Amino acid sequence: MDLTYTPEEEGFRLEARTWLEAHVPKTPLTSFDTAEGFQQHREWERTLNSGRWSAVNWPVEYGGRGANLIQWLIFEEEYFRAGAPGRVNQNGIFLLGPTLMEFGTPEQKARYLPRMASSEEVWAQGWSEPNAGSDMAAIRATARRDGDHYVLNGQKTWASRGAFADWLFGIFRSDPNSEKHRGLTFILVPLNLPGITVRAIAQLDGETGFAEVFFDDVRVPVENRLGAENQGWNVAMATAGFERGLMLRSPARYQATARKLIALYKIYAKTADPCLRDAVARGWMNAEAYSLNTYWTVSRLLQGGSIGAEASLNKIFWSEMDVQMHETALALLGPRAELLPHAPAAENAGHWLDGFLFAMAGPIYAGTNEIQRNIISERLLKLPRS
Predict the structure, then answer these.
(1) Which of 229, 243, 320, 338 is catalytic?
(2) 311 plus 214 within the same structural domain
(3) 357: containing domain
(4) Helix or strand or coil: residue 151?
(5) Could you read off the pLDDT of 328-363 as tens digits, one per residue?
(6) Which of 43, 70, 88 is the last residue of a domain?
(7) Does 256 share its domain with 365?
């Protein structure tokens, strides 16, 4: 793997850096898990789209720049270097968007992708149910075919961005006699349809980043199906690959956290437990290792390779690395670690607790790490089931 950048890539970096320096808000936006902050972040996404930076690796006709994956990694590095806002439509742009590219019809791509890139339509993920979390094969929400419509009934929970989103993508059991991963269909659902009830779920900090969504005889056109009927598992697994693999969590995110952790250590170095120095160094090394591994993976993809079950290795690594770095930061902060960002005495401490609470969800969402270890043991290591 050649770790030097081409003149074209360096020019792309300079263009991205210049644009971000001119457009990134000088004042941090309100959390996008609030109604006010959600709208602020939607406006930011529209600003990104105006410069064609919201989905840089998408084809130009859908709102992107046609950038390759190396350029996408470069953009992510510049995005986090600039301290730009979080991506409120990441479920759409980083998960559903690539899935649409692979499975969507030309009409679906033309209909959904440009509005996704501009965040005219923000998407929620609707997979989990009360009795089907990481085990998506246990899904019970149904999609009954009725002419040119599906009639949806059931419940989804932990729908990311569900409290304020415009659309939801989910999988529903379309064959009532099917079991496990068979007989599921992937459907795109507007959240303003009759029969849909959305109830916000409060997080540990009281904000509403999730929702439970109820379907009561909701009629959705068959044209909203992504992929073939009863083949939704294959579509969903492609989406899960994007979620666990490259797109949802770029290395730049964790490199930025590592840099902040080093800066925090410099403040508390004289009074900190000496063993925390090693923990800070380990966080930085892990972030760099994850970055190098991602560049290696991208190099393979550009040469015609693919990502399979090894995406589970990625997911475990970045989620546990994130927890470790935030735990180290809280240990450095001592009693001040309990302060949330809005606390009067928070100063430089508050965002670490906020980040820690989110990091704790990392080993759970995108498939729990226990499930990922099962996948690794069975599909990569070829170990027998007990």
Answers:
(1) 243
(2) no
(3) 249-380
(4) strand
(5) 999 999 988 888 777 777 777 778 988 998 899 889
(6) 88
(7) yes
